[in-house]
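My current task is to audit a protein record that another person submitted. My question to you is simply how this chain folds and whether the tokens agree. This is what I was given:
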Amino acid sequence: MKRMLRSILILDLLVVFNWATRSYRSLAQKYGGQALDVTPEGDACGSHKTAYWGVISVGTPPQPFKVLFDTGSGTLILPSQDCHAAGCRHHHKLSISASKSSHQVDVNGSDSGDLVFGIGDVFGNFYSDRVCIGNLSMCATVKFVAATNESSEPWESAPFDGVFGLSLTGSPLGEGFDVAAAGLLPQAQFSVVLSDEDGGSKITFGGFQPETMGSGILWTPVHSEFGWQVEIDDIALDGWPTGLCSAGKSSGGGCQAAVDSGASVISGPGALIQALSISVNVSKDCENYQNLPSIGFQIGEQILNLGPEDYIDRTSAGCKFLPTPIDVPPPRGPLLILGFPFLRRFVTIYDRANVKLGFAVARRMHLHDGNRIGPISLAGGLDWNGPPVPGVGGSTLLDIPLQGGCLSGRLPAERDDNGTPTTKAAPGNFLQRRLRHHNQLR
């Protein structure tokens, strides 16, 4: 039985921890693909934030946890007090016995599962308990995985305790494990706003906040059985289609794009990313930075454009092209993955009831940021503002602030069974340890 549960959960639990490693191997495995070897340059942080997390509470009385809100997976996973492994050591752990509302549950006759993901693993028990968001203002009974063992990689250095899955397809564990269907998603909508600025990131349950938007909303249907995926007609440079996606369509592929709030990068098929990199031609010394084109994703007649400040990691060490080659095989792929660089430029609205995604320019973004073309345009470069944004983005809105950051190379403070820090943060270069581990796997 555990073998069956393991096979079901593989895709669900390949949560993106590539923000820490810059190797992108975990992101490739999340989508069942392969990544080309990437050698990190510079520090693990770069010029952009590479992780975002918010706070939920579980149990009666409530116990707080920092979680990654991930549209690429569908299960709530938290470390339990019974976990003494390295992966749990530095995180707040759930005390099952301290919660009056906690109950262990079975899935197909099993109350636990051995979950394999990436280069790590989790063993956990299945529980049902009261889960709340927004300072206890919205609560529901949810089934989840309480980990009793977590591998050190990648959990040990994660800046958050667990993962809050928001996949369109829900949890592969079945009824009750889907947090959205359990009642924590009023109006069957939520929206995500990300920023490199402190205090500028949040997830809104119940709809969207019009004041966060600097344009109308471009709505597009979700066609995929795999989750929050949309069809991209083509990739454009400075508003002009390149034909990179149409070439894929002629061979039976095409550009499908997953909008993933748990991915720190933009990625795509190796041949496409290589062609795009050659066309953009980023100079490592940043000499041509001011003349770099916008990179756009065409949906119908509209193009969602990213400027160099979005797709380039510009540091004192130079400029690096961020889009990463990852080949996802059919039936899931070929696949583009639109992560943090895209989500910082555009407010994204996830509508489960109508099975569609909405995109609007984040209001904090200047409409051009010094570029020749606006964030949303028509082919050829003419700006598109869209219909007026409604004054109310939902009848029941609940904002959850998201903290953003990057891995500094130091582990979080170790905690005891009550969640109290017991030691200072442990020094060490996580990035170097991950690369050594990858080399050992080869």
About this structure: The longest strand covers residues 120-133. The CA atoms of residues 221 and 354 lie 8 Å apart. The longest helix spans residues 430-441.
